[in-house]
């Protein structure tokens, strides 16, 4: 059975090693309940040479990508797969961040902009030049996905493992939205799942983020890869199995926690 490597840090207040983040801690509890061998470490350099394909590394996105790269794997799933386009409820197109920042009609239009390159900046609505702070790079003109803005009243993260919707957790619950007053349409969500299962190249674990708009529509926000997901309150065993399902698929090994 493969090992679980877990990033830790020394907490000076408690004078002990602890998981490096809440998400890592939640995954650790799940894998511990599943009977895994868990090995703590501080830096990805400490374990890089000894990690095998059957192992799982609990770390941040860049560090996980280092491990995937070691085995010639580059994770990638589309934000908006073709089978789910009917649930977007808005137009989406590609542009570059420099083109947007140099055109007042674009940077003042209130479009939602997110990079196609994973996590180089957080997607946001651009209404002014100040909103562009932190979105650029002097060495690279980032390609971005641009979409018409939505008046979102509530958002949820739908966790999918092996084609099953294992949980739906609220996120982005801003007080000024009063998101707790809204609820998604379960029939629309079921239709999304039906179409998701028709996608031949679908990930074995991911999130499908959905929202409810001010005019009452339940729409797809985006998909996210399971290896790069926060738990958002997902129970620890479910979270561990979600991570294991995706790591196993990416590295083409047997999922030892599929039970």
What is the chain-wise order of helices and strands? EEHEHEHEHHEEEEEHEEH
CA gyration radius, whole angstroms: 20 Å
Number of helices: 7
Percentage of residues assigned to helices: 10-25%
Total strands: the figure is: 12
Describe the structure.
- The chain has 259 residues and is of the alpha+beta class.
- The protein has helices at residues 22-33, 44-47, 61-70, 97-101, 104-107, 186-196, 236-251, and strands at 4-11, 16-19, 38-41, 56-58, 92-96, 111-115, 124-126, 143-147, 152-161, 164-171, 205-213, 218-225.
- Strands 1, 2, 3 and 4 form a four-stranded mixed beta sheet that branches. The protein has a four-stranded antiparallel beta sheet with strand order 5-8-6-7. Strands 10-9-11-12 form a four-stranded antiparallel beta sheet.
- Strand 11 and strand 12 form a beta hairpin.
- Helix 1 (22-33) crosses helix 7.
- The longest helix is centred in the C-terminal third of the chain and has 16 residues, at 236-251.
- The mean pLDDT is 93.
Pick out its properties.
4-stranded antiparallel sheet, alpha+beta, 7 helices, 259 residues, 4-stranded mixed sheet
Quickly describe the structure:
This protein has 259 residues and is α+β, with helices and mostly antiparallel strands.
Please specify the SSE layout and strand pairing.
Layout: E1 4-11, E2 16-19, H1 22-33, E3 38-41, H2 44-47, E4 56-58, H3 61-70, E5 92-96, H4 97-101, H5 104-107, E6 111-115, E7 124-126, E8 143-147, E9 152-161, E10 164-171, H6 186-196, E11 205-213, E12 218-225, H7 236-251
Parallel strand pairs: 1-3, 1-4
Antiparallel strand pairs: 1-2, 5-8, 6-7, 6-8, 9-10, 9-11, 11-12
């Amino acid at each position: 059975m493969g090992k679980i490597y877990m990033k830790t840090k020394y907490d000076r207040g408690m004078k002990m090693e602890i998981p490096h983040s809440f998400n890592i801690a939640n995954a650790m509890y799940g894998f511990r309940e599943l009977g895994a061998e868990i090995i703590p470490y501080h830096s990805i350099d400490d374990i890089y040479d000894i990690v095998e394909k059957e192992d799982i590394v609990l770390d941040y996105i860049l560090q996980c990508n280092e491990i995937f790269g070691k085995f010639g794997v580059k994770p990638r799933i589309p934000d908006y797969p073709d089978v789910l386009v009917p649930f977007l409820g808005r137009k989406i197109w590609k542009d570059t961040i420099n083109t947007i920042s140099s055109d007042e009609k674009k940077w003042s239009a209130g479009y939602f902009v997110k990079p196609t390159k994973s996590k180089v900046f957080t997607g946001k609505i651009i209404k002014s030049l100040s909103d562009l702070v932190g979105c650029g790079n002097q060495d690279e003109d980032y390609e971005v996905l641009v979409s018409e803005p939505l008046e979102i009243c509530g958002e949820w993260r739908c966790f999918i493992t092996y084609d099953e919707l294992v949980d739906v957790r609220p996120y982005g619950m801003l007080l000024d939205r009063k998101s707790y007053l809204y609820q998604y349409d379960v029939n629309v969500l079921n239709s999304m799942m039906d179409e998701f299962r028709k996608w031949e190249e679908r990930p074995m674990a991911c999130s499908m983020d959905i929202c409810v708009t001010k005019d009452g529509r339940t729409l797809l926000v985006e998909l996210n890869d399971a290896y790069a997901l926060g738990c958002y309150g997902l129970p620890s065993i479910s979270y561990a199995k979600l991570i294991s399902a995706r790591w196993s698929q990416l590295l083409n090994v047997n999922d030892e926690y599929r039970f």
